[in-house]
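Dear Dr. K.,

Following up on our conversation at the group meeting, I've run the structure prediction for Rab-GAP TBC domain-containing protein from Aspergillus pseudoviridinutans. I'm pasting the input sequence below exactly as I used it, so you can double-check it against your construct before we proceed with anything downstream. Let me know if the numbering doesn't match what you have in your notebook.
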Amino acid sequence: MSQPTQAQLNIAALAGPSPRTMRTLRKIQSHQILSSNPSVVSGPTSRLSTARSSANAEELAQQAQLDSPVRLRHRRARSNSDAGSGERPILQTQKRSGRKTGSGFGIKRSVLETLLRDGPQNGDVEDALKELRYLVLSTRVEADGDGMSTYRVYLWLTLLDIPPLPTDEYLSLIHRGRSPAYTKIRNDTFRTLATDPLFKRRVTEASLIRLLNATAWKIHDVKAKKRPKSRLSTSRRREMELSINTPPSIAEEEPTATPSSEAITSESAIYVQGMNVLCAPFLYVARSEVEAFALFHYFITRECPGYIRGAMDGVHRGLRLVDRCLEIVEPKLAAYLFSKGMQAELYAFPSVLTLCACTPPLPEVLHLWDFLFAYGPHLNILCIVAQLIRMRDTILESPSPNKILRSFPPLDAKEIIALTVLIVRKIPDALYAELIDHAK
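The predicted structure tokens came back this morning:
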């Protein structure tokens, strides 16, 4: 697949492309950035050893492309559940003090946090987003030993372009009581990251149930609107007959689907097993259930609707892509696994469905998600390939690799991201296009 030229991107911007088109362009452009530039992954002074010369932050920022005119957000002192009126944009020209609010005097913020809080100096959102994505790749989000960060949730909201959600909207879903998927949800929530003490200490099962149940109601309502009618009543037939004489100008005024429901169809499930693990990091990071709900609902309905549609066809496409990408990047390892009957369907299903959230430790999952949200969740497929490559020698030496692949080694986000950046450069354009679209 040929890459879009700058002229094509400019024409597309003038034509006013749809949000989905812009997301796809952004992911293709992320491929160009990652495949054509060795990126900083371990700190300001450490770079990947590659055949190509290193590109500095300014060069990489110039090549990054904007996916949509999103607004950067302030880190508020209170959580999103405290006010439903939204949050102020970060587009301000004045500079703020360099110390952290509530963190003591004289403590300097990181460049990433400063950009997220204070915004672009000249009000240029496009350049700020380019720099923001690069900073995510080149520096880790500051967090404590538990993986907690004061600004990570706002970084995710910004990178995914999620608008503020009124608290009352979430509460109205909660107050509707049990959804049709409630029993399935209760059968899963108590097992969510059950062996992770960090998660158990911060997130209660009750909050998991509320969030998943609210999401189920939200998807249920959208499905009900899109479900075709099998039989029409006499009064409905009469209405349709009368509509023949309706002026075209009136017919054109019918409301269109909201952006949050475009990817949901009548075939979508309101809940599938594994969604409990996928929503766990959102609840862990967010400062309120409203923020977590906004992130989780957006993610499953916009970024990976194929994962909850039909027989989870998006997940199965992702598993086949794991095999194909591994065959290109590490043909010897792929051939050995195939000779043992070990396709990705047998060992990588949880990793694809949950974006590796099923593999501890949780703080490393959060760092990995920072990268995925900055450059595209489709890169999770290549992150799984990177984990297999790190296990290469152990797998090749084992007569029964299925025992090794029953559980992946603990995540090391820094090493996986570094390896993924190298893998991107080896993936053909046509195959990369399939990566981008596999979850749609």
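Two things stood out to me. The radius of gyration is 23 Å. Residues 246 and 252 are 10 Å apart (CA to CA).

Best regards,
J.T.
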